[in-house]
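Suppose a colleague, Dr. K., hands you the sequence of a protein chain of 322 amino acids and asks what its three-dimensional shape might be. Before reaching for any lab equipment, you can write down a predicted structure in token form. Begin with the sequence itself:
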Amino acid sequence: MSTGTTVPWSAVRSAAQALQGVAVRTPLLEVPALSAGRGTLVALKCEQLQPTGAFKLRGAYTAVARVAREGLGRGVVTQSSGNHGQAVAFAAHRFGLRAVVVMPASTPRIKVAGVERHGGTVVFEGKTRSAEQLRRAEQIARDEGLVMIPPYDHPDVIAGQATVGLEIIEQQPDVHTILAPVSGGGLLSGICVAVESLAPHVQVIGVEPAGAAKLSAALAAGAPRTLERVESIADGLLTPSIGTLTFSILRRIVREAVQVSEQEIRAAVRFLHHTAGLSVEPSGAVATAALLAGRIASTPGPLVIVLSGGNVDPDFYADLVR
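The predicted structure, expressed as tokens, is then:
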């Protein structure tokens, strides 16, 4: 079935098949403390259990696989604040390709180490996340004959991320609502591709830090808008704008963006640690934060929350859960 976008359903099925043995089919975990009082199941989709610690592996591997299969370049390059870069390095290593990841100097050391552990070369550009990293990555691509692997606004990346939605629907066929973190929109738009194709009745809600509310801005304007400033402990969600392609997909399904405060994000990380026994980074915990903060209305059927990643500096994490 086609979704009527540049990401056909056949591409999602192909991505799912190629990811077998590479990405984990992550479990849905019911946490009674979340379901209590809601009258329906609440389950967590545990993407922090991926080999690279985040859902990004799905999209990065799908895109890098095409580069390898079609012989498009001598290697790949991307810009990333962490999880996408680790996933690109991991995928490139699997295919014997060179990987260069351009990162801001403020990137948490654990995410830099993750890129290097998988054989990637890190190039620092700029102090914080900005357009500087993209320009440097594009220059490296031109100079060294490498292929750009965008972090979210790319059909192959979205097709890979859509396998999260595919698995949720297969694992919980009666799911009513899916909550997912949103930055550039790759994960959220991928889930929407799956929902539109398999279960169009499912409600999809994007959750973002109040200090980086780019989806709220885009939905209000009817088009992506670039925020002048973004700030949050959720370092993986600081993209200043939703992608053009991702927004064109998700806007047909997503009607609501929920914002959460820094305090609520911290509380969600603590809750997941102490109550569910799960180590989740702030970016991965924002959707849980929305539920815990009472921002999500009761649903007549099961609700699934995506935990998008678990890569966090150990000292910072210890402070968060103390």
